[in-house]
Design brief:
The protein is α/β, with parallel strands linked by helices. The chain is built from 14 helices and 12 strands.
Amino acid sequence: MNTNDINSIKTLLSSPKAIVIIPHKNPDGDAIGSTLGLYHYLKQYGHNTTIIAPNDYPDFLKWMPEERSVIKYDTQKEDSDTLIQKADLIFTLDFNALSRIGSMEDSVTNAKAIKIMIDHHQQPDDYATYMYSDVSMSSTCEMVYNFIEMLGDVDKINSAIATCLYTGIMTDTGSFRFPSTTSATHHIIGELIQKGANNSEIHNQIYDTNSYARLQLLGRALSNLKIIPEYRTAYITLTQEELNTFDFKKGDTEGFVNYGLSLEGIIFAAIFIESHQDEIIKISLRSKGDFSVNELSRLHFNGGGHTNAAGGRSELNMKETIEKFISILPNYKQDLNP
């Protein structure tokens, strides 16, 4: 984002506006953290600000400051559409294609509001007037911190903003262990702690509270783990029946795919989760090194993301999806065995 863009946005924000902030469908820690962090910042200037999420998200994200103010489009469509159509500005955070917001897409596409994108995923669509797009960033939360800094307002970052941004950076970097975590990321984390983010409490809220059913589901996922050693690949499957058996709730499978990636010698891991409601197999992909799961997901599973973390979907059944997955691995043999 260049100086002219920043100056234009400063002018837009210099007087109270009706603002809507939108994360992607099935929002994660970075999506909710970044939207809430930006929400707390904009509220300080008297803007009439609303977060509209396409749908609900896991309970372990529902402790953040003012989270209860988030509107869910799928259950409050009429009110949401009114807010979107009356908005002066729409911020879209942690996604770069309007297809990522599901049934909200038409409403946002047709809105007269000026759109501002803040996102770190690859290959952005050209729908926003102002785009802050940087694939080198660890998270959208890190970008929101930089955005506030570019506006000259780091002193406006209070404990609520710090808590929300810390949460998103922590979750999107795998607790600061992914390659996207830089010295700049750690500097920002230090600043956020100084401004009131309680790092140990945030970690506890996200990672250290489990239900018995979730741990049982993890046990089933690990028992379903398969390894394909010739391609240094591991994958996990979970059927709808298995999810039902262990009282599955949104977010319960968060992080499961990383168990496959943690195996010695494995550089590519996947999890396939059946969803009868959506009539698809949801896919999460993770990798180490230079192997791009973003490229693989875009080519074969209608998805995308980052080099080492991506998502996708399949409209085939579970058996057919796994067969397809295994059948494409030979195309990547050289990449998986450098």
